[in-house]
Amino acid sequence: MLTLQQIKENPENVIKRLAVKGFDAKEPIDNVLALDDRRRKLQLTNDNAAAELKQYAARIGQLMKQGLKEEADQAKAQVAALKESQKEIADTLAQTETEIRDILLTIPNTPCDMVPEGRTAEDNVVEKTGGPMPDLPEDALPHWDLAKKYNLIDFDLGVKITGAGFPVYIGKGARLQRALIQFFLDEAGKAGYLEIQPPYVVNEASGYGTGQLPDKEGQMYFVNEDRLYLIPTAEVPVTNIYRDVILSESELPKKNCAYSACFRREAGSYGKDVRGLNRLHQFDKVEIVRIEKPENSYAALEEMKDHVQGLLEKLGLPWHILRLCGGDMSFTSAITFDFEVFSAAQKRWLEVSSVSNFETYQANRLKCRYRAADKKTQLCHTLNGSALALPRIMAALLENNQTPAGIVVPECLRKYTGFDIID
Fold first, then answer.
1. Phi and psi torsions of 271, nearest 5°
2. How buried is residue 295: exposed, middle or buried, by Cβ count under 10 Å (0-12/13-18/19+)?
3. Rounded to whole angstroms, how far apart are CA atoms 302 and 308?
4. Rounded CA gap, 360 and 332, in Å?
5. Are the CB atoms for 380 and 370 separated by under 8 Å?
6. pLDDT digit string, tens, across residues 371-380
7. Is 229 helix (H, G, I), strand (E, B) or coil?
8. How far apart are CA 28 and CA 32, in angstroms?
9. pLDDT tens digit string along 321-369?
10. Which burial class, exposed, middle or buried, applies to 34 when counting CB atoms under 10 A from its CB (0-12, 13-18, 19+)?
11. Where does the pLDDT of residue 55 fall: very low under 50, low under 70, confident under 90, or very high at 90 and above?
12. What is residue 23's predicted lDDT score, i.e. its pLDDT?
């Protein structure tokens, strides 16, 4: 969440920047500032009461030494009344601080200056394009037909076992899925990311720490009896490793990667865009997460983009990078770049990665800090990215690499699959 200091330094600029995300921040910002003014006055009153109590304690001690018991008892009665008053002040102060935090949790992160204005995906900016565009015949099959033809993925069986959006991978389909996971993890390891195997369920504190709560509560699967959430991405458990942690400056950067299954309710999704692997309730993904010093985070963001681009180049897929406009960005992000691959049979671009810098927004929620050389603690910057999400990568690989002889496996995956072609 935004810090009070960020808001107090320049509230007009915060309101202006949040307007780029389509968020009207004037009322919540005004409320936060009014509550903070009340908080500071209450804090001053509380501090004065504490000082007065200290003086009374010294006076009572002197009166007792002088044998003035009646005066000491009168002072003790005044102390009791003052303590009761201070308790009321402290309770009001705590309530005010809670109200400030509750409002701050509803205010999105401010987009950085590089974020273009716009309301929808049509306003996103294409930054870069690469990769060979396949030339398929008119009768090329979409991946859901290829999956059935070669017995790679059974969507109907998933419906039987669980419901729509939970496919069953079979035989070479399962092997190809596992090959992609291992390839992505190995490449992340080469890039210096330490592998983590996280839990697939998290508590509420973790959801609040990375910003899924309260913004995306309806999009997550909830285990009511235990008040736990199935993770929508490994970003949540991995970033929460650093919740309530003060790192030393020499420990930064922290670079982690993790494979996990991901679970998303995707409420309201329907139509042709959700067919096959295009949008699932359960899918696999390899995530990269970085904890950085603020001055290094944008260089780290470029490194992460280069890493994802390198994966797509090795897979031989056509790709482009989008710089998201304010209206298409997530609640928590300061800037986001989406990678999309071209699905030749569907003749459309499919998102396979989002790489984001959250600056101090998540770190403030997490209380993730580092101690600088001057011994002062500062908030870290957090970043994460998909490297990569598997379903749409799988869809594009099946569609783009189909030939009359079968589906050709990219060379970088063959040592993991054990086969060169699916026939």
1. 95, -175
2. exposed
3. 10
4. 10
5. yes
6. 998 889 999 9
7. strand
8. 6
9. 999 999 999 999 999 999 999 999 999 999 999 999 999 999 999 999 9
10. exposed
11. confident
12. 97
